[in-house]
Design goal:
This protein is mostly helical. It is 41% helix and 5% strand.
Length: 87
């Protein structure tokens, strides 16, 4: 799937945008959640996260990255080490 844009809008990503909207609506209602975006370079992962940040006022998008085999450990460490998110 491509990440073509028209006037700042993502094109052809309605399913993914719908999932993001559900997740952010749940967060606004006080329900937590997480989202893992996986894919090859250039698939539009960053564009989807940028979209989430633009369309979810009052919420913070936190990005972490890691190799798939170590994603859980690496991601938790990155979250722990971010100011304001650690334990």
């Amino acid at each position: 799937m491509t990440d073509a844009r028209t006037d700042g809008q993502l094109v052809g990503r309605q399913t993914e945008i719908g999932h993001l909207a559900e997740l952010t609506a749940a967060a606004c209602a006080g329900r937590g959640g997480a989202l893992v975006l996986r894919g090859d370079a250039g698939m539009g992962k960053s564009s989807l996260l940028d979209h989430a940040g633009r369309t979810a006022p009052g919420l913070r998008v936190v990005r972490v990255s890691g190799a798939q085999c170590k994603l859980g450990i690496s991601s938790r460490r990155q979250l722990r080490d971010r100011p304001g998110l650690g334990t």
